[in-house]
Every structure is written in C-alpha cells, then in structure tokens.
Amino acid sequence: MGFNLVGVALSERFIDKQALCSLLGLGEVALVDDHAIFENASSSYAMGDQDIYITEVGNGTLITTAVYINVADVGPVTENGGKAMRFLLGDTTGLYNFFYAENGKGKRSFDIRESIIIDDRGQKLAVETQGKDPSNVIFDLIEEITGMSFWSPLKEMFKFPAAIPVLPFSVPE
Fold first, then answer.
1. Pairing of the two strands 33-36 and 157-160
2. How far is residue 1's CA from residue 118's CA, in Å, rounded to a whole number?
3. Longest dimension (CA), the chain
4. Among 1, 59, 62, 82, fewest CB within 10 Å belongs to which?
5. Does this model's pTM top 0.85?
6. How many angstroms from the chain centroid is the CA of residue 18?
7. What is the distance between the alpha carbons of residues 138 and 9, in angstroms, rounded to a whole number?
8. pLDDT digits (tens, 9 = 90+) for 59-87
9. Residue closest to 162 by CA, chosen among 38, 40, 21
10. Which residues pair with 162 in a beta bridge?
11. CA-CA distance, 24 to 9, in Å (whole number)?
12. Using only C-alpha atoms, what is the Rg of the chain?
C-alpha cells in the first residue's frame, strides 16, 4: 500500500493562512480545524474532499488538497529565489505528476501514468538524474523545497474548506 497525496510545497512559511489562501486563488476561507491530522489530509484527494490542509514544515509550507492550484501563476510565492511545486503522488493508481516553479516561472513538468510518460517538459532536476522512482523524486523535491523531510513527524495541520470547485489536476500548456 502506498501514498495518495495531492498538494503544493512552498519554500516560504506563511503565518497568515488566510493571506496564503488568497494568494493561491483559493478565495475567502475560514479555519475549520487547527489540529487536523495528516491521515485525513493525505486521503482528501481519494475521498473527493475539497478541504485545504496547511502545515508549516522546515522553512516552508506544505498544502494538501484536491483543489487545483496553479503554482506557475503565484509569482509572489516564488519570486526572489522562492520555489513551489504542485504534485500528485498516486502510489495505488500509478499516477505521478509535478509542476515545479522557481523565481516566478515554471521550470519543469512531469507526468507519468502507469509507467507511460504523458508529459516531460523542461530540464530534468538534479534529483531526477539519480535513478529514483517517481514517488521518491516527489518526496525529495518536497524536502528540497520546504527544508524538511516528508518522513519527519508533521506538526499540526490547519484545515480550511475550499471556496472554489475542484478542477481536474493537469499540467498547464
């Protein structure tokens, strides 16, 4: 059994969660639970849950949600050396997808479904040249971006209801 996880990793911490949600285009949201647990956040995509789970990790922020977030359009998050990655990690379905942005611009997109590469744009990132499987590439990128290993204990997560509908998860043209 593997992980099923959809979300965004950011290289910046956000004290004001409402401001972060607004910046990401998620609309006005209200805190539902300030002690949400990772198991709920990691299963939100599979359950069709539109809630947004935000946690501060290392030097960054990890967001898990089924809501589509276009990290390429959130320049303020990735300006001045900032990094962001939208990802889908579906160990049980064989779906792996990420879109990586740095300095306000999309740098790399990769999409593989059941061992078939659907999208492979941009120069490969250093972690991709190490022969790791797609899930470990995504976990390593989460660590590189946020400054904390995915396998470290996560602090409490903050749960917000989504104010926008779930859109299909895809890499923009």
1. antiparallel
2. 24
3. 42
4. 1
5. no
6. 17
7. 10
8. 888 888 766 666 555 555 666 778 888 88
9. 21
10. none
11. 12
12. 15
Confidence of residue 42 (pLDDT cuts 50, 70, 90): low
- Length of the chain, in residues: 173
Q: Which residues 6+ apart lie within 8 Å of 39 measured at CB?
A: none
Amino acid letter, residue 75: G
DSSP letter at 48? T
Confidence of residue 49 (pLDDT cuts 50, 70, 90): low
Distance CA 158, CA 55 (A): 6
Token readout for 50 is: 């539109």
Which tokens belong to 99? 């879109």
Identity of residue 65: T
Return d(Cα 108, Cα 124) in angstroms, integer: 7
Residue in this structure with the two tokens 């969660």, named with its chain if needed: 17
Give the sign of the dihedral formed by CA 123, CA 128, CA 131, CA 135: negative
Tokens 């779906």 found at: 95
